[in-house]
Amino acid sequence: SAADRSAASDHAPDYPSSLVGTSVVTLDDISTSQIRELLHRAQYIDAHRKTVAHTCDGRVLATLFYEPSTRTRLSFETAMLRLGGQVIGFAGAQLSSVSKGESIADTLKTVSNYVDVVAIRHPKEGAALVASRAASVPVINAGDGGHMHPTQTLADLATLQSRFGRVQDLTVGLCGDLTFGRTVHSLIETLCRFGHVNFVLISPDELKTPQYVLDRINATETCSYVEVSDLAGSIGDLDVLYMTRVQKERFFNEDDYLRLRDTYILDADKMRLAKPDMAVLHPLPRVNEIAVEVDDDPRAAYFEQVKNGMLMRMALESAVIGDKLPGYEPLQQE
Ligand code: CP
Q1: pTM
Q2: CB of 249 closer than 6 A to ligand 1?
Q3: Residue 62, helix vs strand vs coil
Q4: Which ranges carry the Aspartate/ornithine carbamoyltransferase carbamoyl-P binding domain (predicted)?
Q5: What CATH number does domain 150-306 carry, 3.40.50.12280, 3.40.50.720, 3.30.70.1350, 3.40.50.1370?
């Protein structure tokens, strides 16, 4: 039964025990060795899909999405279904009691009675933190406004690991909306924890990286950054190009959005200036910033990121619940 399995998994040696019951609002909530363990866990899941198919039998995930999503919500849900669990939730708060004025805290206190883990996306920065404090089950931030998107970063790290065999000693260009891009903020902050990374921050003046993120780079002894506005002039230096969408929903003024939205378009001509093994990442959705012709270039890694997002969410959901993956051996770390 689920109760038996839960009791057994209290003593299971195959996951980082301190992750059990952990809410992940930012990746600062978990250690770098736990992140490495999650990467290893996701690789195991990918190679043993049938073996892990009943890991979360009897478990329930809630997806509370107050903001649109395709990849994040569907991959959180698919992850739980592929582990044998079930899913409840809403995609758009208008059909929930949120439309009657119910607070995030009351919603989480309620939903905690129904489920084992919650994934929440909300347009306001800090909403996931409020949710995690109100809930009695682990809460995973699926994106809070322009702040953080930790599980996207886990997908990004898995993609770098598979392309380069490492997540450090890289020159990483981030291009587009670096002001509101929560995936950019999460990724920079996390890469700063893994060692040497040179960041090339490519944006128009109006969409530069927030100071609190730059401070994080400055606080390391191993990472550095330059801020530039020219993609063609810097692409040749990059190991990784992380493109982002200019996010219409974060602008107060439509004229500003229209002026800035097509500042950077990655196409086959620009790819000819790039290293032969550069990896192009994008959290998706894209609008115009990567021409469709780039999709067939072997350096395009953005649909690999999508797959890795599901695998990393399988790894994380089962780890915070504390369910044992059959046959799994943890990563040996010093
Ligand atoms: N990458 C990402 O967050 O995509 P969705 O908005 O479709 O979830």
Answers
A1: 0.92
A2: no
A3: strand
A4: 24-161
A5: 3.40.50.1370
